[in-house]
Amino acid sequence: MKNRLMVWGVRCFYKLIGQRLHWRTPGARRLRGWCARKICADVQLPVTINAGVGLPPTLRMGPYAGIGQGAMFLGLGTVSLGAHLTMGPECLFITGDHPVPKAGGNFRDHTPVHADIVVEEDVFLGARVTILPGVTIGRGAAVGAGSVVTKDVPPEAVVAGNPARIVRAREQV
Questions:
Q1: What is the distance of C-alpha 49 from the center of its chain?
Q2: Residue 152's Cα: distance from chain center in Å?
Q3: What's CA 80's distance to the chain center, in Å?
Q4: DSSP H helical ranges for the chain
Q5: Is residue 39 helix, strand or coil?
């Protein structure tokens, strides 16, 4: 009971104060990281969580991962963000979906489907990227701004567009 009450208190504190603190405020990033460890399933510090991010309880983050300003997590599925993730503002992670009923059917009579999203290590997500349920983004991939990722992205690929398509492979150093 005490643990539930503490998590509830941290959630309220985060919503009232943590989400709104400007990222340059001293200690704001550390405060959001501490709140994330209490609210989310698994967060390995240090992480960077910018202002305006609602933290879901099913979020998992590796060390040095960064969440861009105004990122949203929708649905009940798990979102796993790998280490050293770089993310632009207003990215959208959707883990839930409704099946489309046959003609004459009703949407509200169907149970929503939830699928996890996995973003592996060293990934770059541009601004306003949308990632749909069940997608895995491979290690070292880059996703262009405004892309809608509907299928898995292979490692070291550069993808862009709606729906996101492979533009090229990253060059070797």
A1: 11
A2: 15
A3: 7
A4: 2-13, 28-39
A5: helix
Q: What is the mean pLDDT of residues 33-60?
A: 88
Structure tokens at 39: 């609210």
DSSP3 helix / strand / coil % (the chain, rounded to 5): 20, 25, 55
Band (1; pLDDT cuts 50, 70, 90): very low
3-state class (DSSP) for residue 36: helix
Nearest-angstrom CA–CA distance, 82 and 16:
28
CA distance 136 to 125: 13
Told to judge if 84 belongs to the known catalytic residues of this protein, a careful annotator would answer no
Q: Which strand (E) or helix (H) includes residue 96?
A: strand 96-97
Tokens, residue 42: 């698994």
Q: Is residue 163 reached through a cis peptide bond, with omega within 30 degrees of 0 on the bond before it?
A: yes
- The pTM assigned to this predicted structure is 0.87
Cα(57)–Cα(79) distance, integer angstroms: 10
Tokens 């990632």 sit on residue: 131
Choose, from 22, 98, 110, 114, the residue flagged as catalytic: 98
Beta bridge partners of 136: 118
Q: Which amino acid is at 13?
A: F
CA 37 – CA 45 distance, rounded (Å): 8
